[in-house]
């Protein structure tokens, strides 16, 4: 893999804000590949998207990223539950790992 040389301002932007806009296309590709390598993802499966947010260009972990990480770390998803509470639609999902750890999250949207 090619070493990348970054201007100090670009490094600061990446570290503090995640802004990749000051990188050249070649530097972004190398950064993308190194990020995938660091967390054990297949870059050819495109686990990240570039997203422009508030003027910054950032890496956004997409559904493919979540699926790769879930398989890699043996995370099981439990059947989600949904509920309409007045004008709020709520979804709850739980996950568990092979070591017994569990977690849950709730998402809501105003309908």
Overview of the molecule:
This protein is of the alpha+beta class. Helix content is 32%, strand content 35%. The chain contains 3 helices and 6 strands; from the N terminus they run ααββαββββ. It has helices spanning 8-17, 25-39, 63-72; strands at residues 48-53, 56-61, 75-77, 81-85, 88-97, 102-110. The strands form 2 sheets. Strands 3, 4, 5 and 6 form a 4-stranded antiparallel β-sheet that branches. Strand 1 and strand 2 form a beta hairpin. The radius of gyration is 18 Å and the shape is extended.
What's the short story on this structure?
32% of the residues lie in helices and 35% in strands.
Keyphrases for this structure?
111 residues; alpha+beta; four-stranded antiparallel sheet; 3 helices; 35% strand
| Helix count, DSSP H or I runs of 4 or more residues | 3
* Helical content band: 25-40%
Number of strand segments: 6
Task: State the shape.
Answer: extended
Overall SS class: alpha+beta
Beta fraction of the residues? 35-45%
Question: What are the segments in which pLDDT stays under 50 over at least 5 consecutive residues?
Answer: none
| Rg of Cα set | 18 Å
**Secondary-structure element string:** HHEEHEEEE
The biggest beta sheet, please? 4 strands, antiparallel
| Rounded average pLDDT | 91
Distance between the termini: 48 Å
